[in-house]
Amino acid sequence: MSIIAPGFSQPVEHSQSCFRQVLKALSEPGHIVTLDKHLGFAPLCASATQILMSLCDQHTPLYLSPRLEEVDGDATINQAQRNLTFHCNTKPSALVNADFAVVSHSEGVNMAKLKCGTDTSPESGTTLLVQSNGFDRGPEFKLTGPGIEHSRTVQLGNLSQSLVEYLINPCHTYPLGIDILLCHQQQLLAISRTTKVELIPCM
């Protein structure tokens, strides 16, 4: 029998705090923020769990990749989904229909199939959460654009080739596109669809 894990101990206060941190991350792409109000519903990490609990509700189609189970073999996606359904009333969805999707850093994702918004509602594209294996490893990227004074250099973890290719050469033209939230433990780093990403060559 599955056991429902507790959600936020102070649901309103903690979800509002998390929402403000997500906005900060999106408005300052490449800047790392900390979400420390919940330990997470494994195999989802703490930051990914808190984002979903703060931003999703009964109207949010949600996709959780089975590849996330490879990170924590004792935890299942079905159990994480049951917890999110209990606390937020989210509904499972196929990736192509999802408003929010969570994938592993190492898996190939056909980004062209994700919702990218419309000319009248560009904000309606998929928000993609990528569970990274750390912001101190992987290739270096140079970020420029709104919210970045000059440029910012970041590491995003060991991302799959499909994710790297989308970051540096997105298949959607602004204002259409996908906001990417990279999550690692309690940390969050956002790459907005307004951000230009360049791969820094290895010396």
SSE topology sketch:
Elements: H1 11-27, E1 33-34, H2 46-55, E2 61-64, H3 77-88, E3 91-92, E4 100-104, E5 127-131, E6 140-144, E7 152-155, H4 161-168, E8 179-184, E9 187-191, E10 196-199
Parallel strand pairs: 2-3, 2-4, 4-5, 5-8
Antiparallel strand pairs: 1-9, 6-7, 6-10, 8-9
Helix pairs in contact: 1-2
Write a brief structural summary.
The protein is of the alpha/beta class and 203 residues long. It is 23% helix and 21% strand.
Give an overview of the whole structure:
This protein is α/β, with parallel strands linked by helices and 203 residues long. 23% of the residues lie in helices and 21% in strands. The protein has helices at 11-27, 46-55, 77-88, 161-168; strands at residues 33-34, 61-64, 91-92, 100-104, 127-131, 140-144, 152-155, 179-184, 187-191, 196-199. The strands form two sheets. The protein has a seven-stranded mixed β-sheet. Helix 1 (11-27) packs across helix 2 (46-55). The radius of gyration is 16 Å and the shape is globular.
